[in-house]
Amino acid sequence: MGPWPPSTERKSCVCTLQCTIRRNRRREREQLMMASCGDPGIKCQLYWRWWLMGILALCARELDASNFTIQELLNNKYPHLVSADIYLDPCKSEGFVGDIALGRPEDDKYEWELRHQNNLDKHNHTDEKKRPERAATARPERLWEHAVIPYEIESNFSGEHRALFKQAMRHWENYTCVKFVEKGPEHLEYIIFTERSCGCCSFVGKRGGGSQAISIGKNCDKFGIVVHELGHVVGFWHEHTRPDRDNHVQIITKNIMIGQEYNFNKLTEEEVNSLGLPYDYASIMHYARNTFSKSTYLDTILPQEEPHTKKLPEIGQRIRLSQGDIAQTNLLYKCPKCGRTIQTPKGIISSPQNPPSDEGVHCEWRITATHGERIVFNITDLDIFETPKCDTDYLEIRDGYWVKSPMLGRLCGSNTIQSFISTSHRLLVTYKTSSRQGNHRGFSANYEAVCGGDVVMEEGILQSPNFPEDYRPNKECLWRITVPDNYQVALQFQSFEVENHDNCVYDYLEVRDGHDIASKLLGKYCGYKVPDEIVSSGNKMSVKFVSDGSVPKAGFSAKFMKELDECKNTEHGCDHECVNTLGGYRCECHIGYELHSDGRKCEDACGGIIDDINGTIVSPSFPDVYPPNKHCVWEIMALPKYRITLNFTHFDLEGNNQDCEYDSLQIRSKLGENEVRKHGVFCGSHLPPTITSEGNNLRIEFNSDNSVQKSGFAAIFSTDRDECVTRNGGCQHICKNTLGSYICACHNGYVLHDNKHDCKEGSCTHQINSPVGEISSPNYPDFYPSKKECAWLFTATPGHRIKIIFDEFELEPHQECAYDHIVVYDGDSNEAPTLGRFCGSKVPHPVLASSNRMYMMFKSDASVQRRGFKATHKTVCGGRLIAHTSVEHLYSHAKYGDQNYDNKEDCDWFIIAKDNGRVRLSFLTFEVEHEQDCGYDFVDVYDGRDDSSHLLGKFCGNKVPPEMISTGDSILLRFRSDDTINMKGFSVAYAEIESYEDDDDDFAD
């Protein structure tokens, strides 16, 4: 191409050219460029052509690097992909058994065979063969070494969630020898509490190979559910999958949802360990009776009657570990039978009295305090058989949670009183004797957790005493933190709840820039707002916590760490900009660039303005998985009077619900400077519908979160002249633009003429059964025709009432609405009582029917037409119901059977006997969120007309309540739901009975 011309000559004929030039418009831009160069000579034209070719070649390379041709997208099929760490994140697993995620097929061969079985294998077993007794893993590599499970909690969880997870872990620790410890550098295998798309799920036992996630998703953040998921981490399958389950429960195959049968298959000896314990109906790892049921009132697992009581055992509790769960865990991890986990602030421990003389004793006490506390251990009596190195009979104290923790002392013989103090919040005490201990007394000791002290560490955690429970009264804790020289101390709060006062005079946390009492005060805190990050000026910081004798709160949890400005070091590796953060740093890119997935390099930003006639748009890195935390915006701009059509050829984004709360693609038409119309938000693997813009501008916005990346999307766009812009396309009413053409449509009350352009009057009688929707007058928003009569019959689910809300209203006015008007009737015809007669321009108040039927009529006379009306119809639960001798029904929510009930339901049904008899109430189906005291969602039944009447029962869960009969002529049925966890709801049959009646076999039919 030759050398560049001299700069002075270039300046005279070079004009601005951006890399946004599109290939299919280069000829037009080339002509524009020539014109803008003035009157160049031949030499200038040659220079210009040389320069233009170089820039266009560069632009072409940039465009070709990410663009696909239309033919490529039409002719090729691209696979759906998912990020490579699928096997360590349960939600990225390729298979599930209930809430259990499966690993690689080559690693979990049997589980995958179990997952893909098509039946429950009822006949392919031999009853005479000895069966394992519990559904615990039989694979030793799945067990955690020394029962120590390191954990980490992702930073996006709130302090309340962190406290919940720690309470669940403490529950396991309190009854077993399993120990959950904060992940440290020495822990290569650990669990991460995270929130993933699969909701609640986990692997069984230790997976190996690094971190593995335990997902606690939305609506799973309940204590019992977290304890259940931790049970999988410990190493438990579901109780009903043990091989001998047919002796204890019956699996009712016909009631199981299609495609979910594999969740009820049995495990084999290869997967479970025979530990000699009986079947445990009360296990927190057991399914409920209707898990994966086709309908809430159909059992999928039916327990056998208990021989003594002749009652069916309760199954599926999510409240606490059962005695069987505890015994199973202690056997699985070979926990010492003597000793226990201690979580109280102080106490006394001693060796067992009168142990068997012919065998040794092995006891283990695991003393756990709160982060920031240390444990003082005082030996008050010691008399143990003495050997030279205390190698057979001894009392051992270790500064930590396990046998590899530093030893503070190993004692035997008859020593004087000694004291030990831990450097952390855990202490392990082991007492071991042989048969030679004989009549030696053993030992006795006391312990106490003390807070504060000198902390010389690079990082750690400080917590108020007894966190996450309420802190103890009258405590004063002073921590003096020291990190290495040339570093600062950074304090980052994770949770904060301390008794509030304007001046923090009662309970408070005080932070100073050094160890002296006169050091600069960095902050004094109380209340409920989490303090901002605090950084000292040097390598020392003091933290003081004080509580008085009243009003304890949950306290605080904070992480401290050494802090250094890594961006001052030129080896940070950032392409563009380095931003210092607490405990680390992050890279950022200049405008027009985005950070690569490696967190260091910068690459061209996705998105941009597109003015091509047609082309393609694909997600970043397509057809490979898109990067995490990506935000891309494309804006397609067509010529005036043109529309843009978008067709997807590939679509694979994380998520499958209507909220698309993880990864999403949002598409909107831009109609003006501040006016947009939303076409939809899309995710999942189904292709979105064809989308046509409402103007000449279409905006496409892509977002991905920090986990579960998929193969993304590919779409073809084209622009087309909008024939509807000119004279409405010749359509009398509505013109709808289509690709290459258009179609005509008509307003409400009209149908399309045979000529496909004009409209003529049609039928104006409507039967509406949907629970929500819109209605309008004929020809709305244009004037309604004269001499028109229309009728709407609304029918809702029994137990729900129709409500009409008028959004727009303009009819011919008259004092008595004698001309044009609307009449609403409280029933199914115009013979029902009138709820209102409306006309004029004042928007009527909402109209509510007393039952599940409403009839509405519109009538116009021969003169004076107006725009008419537009209204929304919906359903409202509750109301006054009349019980007749024939059986009638009501349902918990309007979409019962199609979807779960909504959040914050607030329904009262007053059921009154028609002829002063009594009301009989029978629940046919029942599935409401379970809680021990029915504190979340519940149904109350009162023997009377209000809640001051006698409460017949408060119900939740999935057990159908008993039949109830009022003592008087009425019953109040109340249903409430909170803002989380929705279930299938319930259906009820009710009828009037005579006072002397007490039974009717046909009542629930």
From TrEMBL:
Q: What cofactor does this one take?
A: Zn(2+)
Q: Which SUPFAM superfamilies match?
A: EGF/Laminin, Metalloproteases ('zincins'), catalytic domain, Spermadhesin, CUB domain
Q: Cite the Peptidase M12A domain residue spans from the record.
A: 135-336
UniProt binding sites for Zn(2+)? 228, 232, 238
Every CUB domain range: 338-450, 451-563, 606-720, 764-876, 877-993
CDD domains of this UniProt entry?
CUB, EGF_CA
Q: EGF-like domain location, by residue? A: 563-603
Name of this chain's protein: Metalloendopeptidase
The source organism is: Centruroides hentzi
